[in-house]
Amino acid sequence: MATEITLIEKLQENVDALKASVAGLESQVNELMDLEKGEMTAAAVTESSHIGLTLFVFALAIFLGVELITKVPSQLHTPLMSGSNAISGITIVGAVIALQNLPQGNVMIPIIGFLAVVTASINVVGGYLVTDRMLGMFKSKKGGE
Length: 145
Known about the structure:
The structure is a single chain. The protein is mainly α. The protein has 2 domains: 1-71; 74-145. It is built from 3 helices and no strands. The longest helix has 70 residues, at 2-71. The N and C termini lie far apart (127 Å).
């Protein structure tokens, strides 16, 4: 009987230790959940600050582009146009690759991607036509004229 009482006491001690462990784990889980809620609100604040930063960079790029283009001499427009056409060609390749891996369920993403491909294609074709015409002005005329 004494051994049974000792076993029951040990079992009760083990149960009490398990209860304490469960209580400790529960408090840790609650702390993690509170921390996650705080991080989610911080992520939402960070998301809105990214939009402001993006708009600021976009406005800065517009002003910088206008200033840069007005300062370029006319002799450099043809080589710069050829370079920008090459960049638009890279944009087309990137847009086509991005259109191959679309997330399901959003209709606007393929529409915007298609418009990006069409716009970049128009830019490339038009740019090369204008560049060809500008370079044609420097070719010598046949017949000695």
